Amino acid sequence: MKKFRAFTCSALLLSALLAVTPSVVQARGIVSGRAFDSYRLPNTTVPTHYTLRLDTDIHREIFDYTGNVQIRINVLEATDQIVLHSSRSEITHVQLRNGVGLSVPVKNFEFDEDKEFLVVNVGTTLQPNTGTYTLEIDFTNSIARNDQAGFYRSSYDDENGVRRYLGLTQFESVDARTSFPCYDEPGIKTTYDILIVCGIDYHARSNAPLRGIQLLEGGKKLSTFATTPRMQTYLVAWLVSDFKYEREVLTDPQLAIASWSKPSSVHLLSYSVDASKRFMRAMEEYFDQLYSMSKIDNVAIKDEDYAAGAMENWGLVTYKESAISYGPEDGEQRQVGVVTIVGHEFTHQFFGNLLAPKWWSYLWLNEGFARLYQYYLGAISHPELQLRERFVTGPFQTALRADNSLTVRPMTYYTETRPSISRLFDSIAYDKSACVLRMMNYALGERTFQKGLRYYLQQNKERGVVEESNLFDSLEQAAKEDAVLPISLSIHEIFGSWSHQPGVPLVKVRRDGNEYLFTQERYIANTPPEEAFENSWWIPISFSTPSNNAFEKLPAFWMPPNVSEVAYTIETVQDEVVSFNPHSTGYYRVEYEESMLRELIERINKDHTGFEPATRARLIDDTLNIAQSRGGNYDVVLQLLNYLQRETDYVPWAVAYENLRHMQRMLRTNEAVSQLLERFIEKIASPLLERYGGVDHRTGESASVEELRTIAIDLACSGSQSCKHDAQSAVRSLASKKHYTMEDNALLCHGLQHSNAEQRKALQAQFSQALSDKNLDNPSAKQFLLQSLSCLGGDMTKVQSFAKYLFALSESDRTKALHRLLVELNVPLAEIVQSLQSELSQRRSNSVYYKHGPKLIFEIARYVTDPADVQLLSSVASSYDSWVASEIEQQVNANLNWVEQNVEPLKNALTRYFDA
Q: Element (H or E) spanning 299, and its range?
């Protein structure tokens, strides 16, 4: 039965509220439609403006706050109820006034706690088209909460060791309602006037520029901000702190760009300001659209206090501190991180903020664009970082892995409840959507796609609320103008086949002379269901030969859905081979018939430079994944991977690395086959170390070289004597280092595997002291120490429990740490699960640990192949909704299928390889 609270109030009520008898909250009387059987607000009223005033005492370490919100509303349907959202706030006064300021009687207000509705029952019937009403609500609330959502507190220790507190907001997706009463849905956009009271030595920042400050009694001041653009509640934001900033003011047009942090870290913000400036101007020019306000702030929040990672609040963007900090000794890899995360959040200022999704179903219209253009606009603003090629090794690979299961959802997907909305923030919304948008960019040609997006922004920004059909309309207009599609095709038909269906296509190719024959089916990483899938897509087929690269990115033709086979003629000269989807521009895998595949592998082993790096990466990824999905021909796989002994490019190695790590993960409990695989890996990776001059980092190297050397250390160090020696030296020299590189982390972990008990104990003490050092202000150094803590294996629990440690890491760092603990250092999976179980048992269901528990459970599930581990992990999942256990079961079954299908064929192929 749903929880329910009901209260009476009058226009004169100032404090205590009288409870009325509980009853089921429902729309009644005049409204005949919805009876609150939905988590969507009834559309009887709509807000047209908010005036929100908050009074805080954070400077005095008082975490309760008071608020007053005045919401101007229009009535759309005759009703005697005003329904909006509210949770956590204690309502102390409610009143309603008409357009001339006269009081309208309010009978009472009620809470539907399940749907988080605040229902204000009016003593008369409100009629549409009778002018504007103002709903005014006084409330109290607190920032002393532990879920890192809504309006909550963070802290830092100053140079004297004194704890300083601050308050910040994180409202996406549905947590604005937990901080003030509001209409908390993404398709409802309106303007805001925000006023914040804080201590005289603190300051307030919000979405819009500061308009004025008024001194108040008691050592406080009132900050008033300009009216915001029309925006949705999840973008409303404010910060109350004593942070300092780095700033640059641009002209023509004027724009103030600032980055804020605790005072001791301000010197690490200059690069983020410069990156913001360069990205913003590149974005404005690319989309022919100016940013909507005269300022934008970046705010660096202590990593431990910011689970969201980053948030695109209009004009006040928040980040983990480590994400936007950059010191003079940090390498290019850190620049890549700063530019891409700033680029992601700044792209949202157009896609998500200027154009808001009508409902969460269309979240991909926000996140897909942000993921794509953090790389593609980043490549324009920062060409030196070569970000376009990183899309293939990052989002493209992530999407293919996420989209290969039986139960994955489509891009456009409707849901309503708080937990299910939260689950939409997944790799489908971010990575797959970015891949599909990128595919359309290449399929239409970038100039036409860019024109279509300019139309999309211009045609929809006034209304400001969009759904996928609006995007399709604009792209269709550009495509027709430029005549880049066959006249019989439409963008709605093509794009809809990708946004409305789950899964990734597998295109099978066979050859008959110069005629190539294509079929398509849905790719599944493990055994597909007995009944064939009905999924089918419009697929842009691209190809390349040594003498013909006209269609290496553009589609040679569109493969239609629901057709058994498509034939296409490609003229080739003698001995030429054809590669399909050579630059991964299309979101699909390619399976060549065996004779074609063997010919490609023979050529790549003879001269891999005859193929572009992206083509080599695509061939590696598709061949390995198709083989693993069927327990396939590993002799061919090993022959392909053998060429890596001569590979020097980052892109193929990054793709191979992820695939090899997956195989290591699946074989972690099979010592015999693991050793064979490690032997093979050492052989193909060892030349890479030598080619890049060993393990030593060199100042000024590109991010790709840094990462290549790190990959080589990870894969080859256990078999290279010189690398082992360098790794042990890295352990000894750690204490004297003040700056750490990517290579240091990999070397440290290998060195610890060969260290004695005394060295490990000393390093453990060093980690413990450093991580608790209040004077450690460099976020990069702290991040390095956290990443490296897992190198201690089971000994790390003397510093921090497995669960606390893993929760403290970013998702990408957590993935690396789990692989290190479970695969490289053989920590029993049961110990990690038991630590997680213990930690969650001590947390309330609204804590940030509990809220993000499923993500960690799913990550651990990727390593489970033992029945005892399955049972233990399932017991942890039992405290969550049934979908968590279902997802775990699916992952574990996939793991078991992999082991059953692949262990013997892989073992036999590796044995033959070394016997040859």
A: strand 295-301
